[in-house]
Structure of FAD-binding domain-containing protein:
Amino acid sequence: MQKGAVPVEGARFLDYHDGSLLYMRKIDERESAMQSTDGPCVAHRADYHATLHEEATRLGCEIQLGCEVQDVNFDQASVILNDGSVIAGDVVVAADGLWSTLRDKILGQLSPPLPTGDLAYRMTLPADALSTIADQNVQELLRPNLSTVWLGPDRHCVLYPIRNRSQWNLVLIPDNLPDNVRTQAATMEEMKQCFEGWDPRLQKLMATGDAVMSWKLLHCEELKTWSKGRCVLIGDACHPSLPYQAQGAAMALEDGITLGTLLGSLNESQHPAVCGADRRAQCILELLLVFESVRKPRTSLNQKGSQSNQYWYQASTPEDMERRNKVFRSADGWGKCEWKGADFEYQRELLGYDARKHALETYEGWEKQARAVDCNL
Ligand SMILES: Cc1cc2nc3c(=O)[nH]c(=O)nc-3n(C[C@H](O)[C@H](O)[C@H](O)COP(=O)(O)OP(=O)(O)OC[C@H]3O[C@@H](n4cnc5c(N)ncnc54)[C@H](O)[C@@H]3O)c2cc1C
């Protein structure tokens, strides 16, 4: 990751009211014990897109903007655009997000995402404006490259630096967006009301903002299938989750790595059992099923983890809040923990995963089997 991404030293979790520390997750020897390749970075969405765009262009992808896909032909692996034109290929990869058009077509039924009861207010705050806040406590909060998470009753809030620390992203999560609305400009007033009585430093940070958007947070239950013919879903189109593990985009990227590695390996293979023109379409169909079987357990792990964080981050009753605070305060991140965010084995499974290695091993296993079947014919 380049382009203004900020490597973070960790994440601290604070009590919503007095800002006291509940849990500090430091990026230290734990990361290498998890075999996570690099420490985490935080980045502006547009910078992340720019990095992906640059790499895709370097690899020779041709990108056409303003093309809305309206329909798909599963047998011919082609899509029909809104101007009536048709684009065909070996495979249709539907990375069309939470409100996916092709998901309905693959499943053969409507599949609207389900409400989770939460929404997100999102705003970016210029570091210049924040540096003028005359409060030593606020300035100390902003000094280290840390993500900060305030945990309250029924809501939580996340702050982290982006764009080489020239901006800070503030995401506040309660629930009051009307049904049938995906995003809308929100008023600063309504957002501030939602967080009245929270840490005074948060109030001062919010006061520097002048515009805020609200996003409804939705998800889907695990889908019965991700593909039909040579058309396959990836990313939020097939496994949207609450963003409470900050792994949705990471999962979409892992999908891309896995699918690219499986199909790329097929493309490069010289073995007649898999590379003959007559076998190609069948091999692609098989590999799309292999892709789903590799990815589903992992993306469901993320979906369930994010859902369970909804309980911990937004504990509703005084009893649940007390329990939450006790669990967070006593966690050290090395052992087992009721809260998965501090459970070492869970974190290692989530963050220490090598998608490319797993996909290469899976491909080798699949091709070996295909060769064996070919020998027996
Ligand atoms: C508030 C919030 C905070 C989040 N924070 C994090 C985080 O910290 N870390 C993280 O990893 N993830 C985070 N996520 C999740 C992350 O944004 C998603 O998981 C990720 O964007 C999914 O990528 P995608 O490519 O599958 O879908 P999207 O990013 O939704 O992209 C889908 C694309 O398809 C296009 N499209 C849709 N329909 C059609 C059509 N018919 N024809 C042509 N194009 C079409 C859309 O215009 C869009 O460009 C967050 C999400 C939210 C809502």
User: Anything to note?
Assistant: Residues 242-377 form one domain. The chain is about 40% helix and 20% strand. The longest strand covers residues 114-126.
